[in-house]
Amino acid sequence: MSQPVKRTYRADKRARTAEATRAALRAAATELFVESGYAATTMREVARRAGVGERTLYDAFPNKFELFRHTIGVATVGDEEPVAVLERPEVLAAQSDTDAAAAIAGLVEYTAALFERAGDLIMVGIEAGAADAAMRAGSDAAEADTYQTWLGLTRNLFRAGALRPELDAEAAADIFFALASPHVFRLLRRQRGWSAARYRDWLTGSVTAQLLRA
Q1: What average pLDDT does the segment 22-34 reach?
Q2: CA 6/CA 12 separation, integer angstroms
Q3: Are 54 and 43 in contact (CB under 8 A)?
């Protein structure tokens, strides 16, 4: 009667071990990708920094591209659940909020937190795309998804009559897309040393001023 319990325990333990290994690999990969760039980072260096054997790394990720894709994917959404940003509850709530200012603030808060986790990796992917077609395709797809996030919000704002009179939903999304870019995040947070709170507040105020009726 106790055998199924033992098997379940062993399976749970293996799952926890695998999860911990993936977390260690993601942490090591993130550090190396940000420090050295995508092209210069090797799988051997990732394994060494994570404290695992190369075979363990290759068992989890067959190549560097798959390792990067997994690492940035988890950093972007904050967990390993297969739920895209567009389908995250925080994003859906912001897009449907009837209070225009609160909707912008909610989406900016989510975006700022996303950049804190993944902004540096996003820029690694963008820069690597200049010489790597697969990385460029990944960055282009991510940018298209990001634009759809802003457009989902600005369409609701347009329907509600909350946008400035000279803006339609697409123009408003363009502005949001530019202001809330990983390039601006890196400029202000990394190069100019703004605090996370200052960046978030600036982005909220800037998007609100540019998009909403006075």
Answers
A1: 97
A2: 10
A3: yes
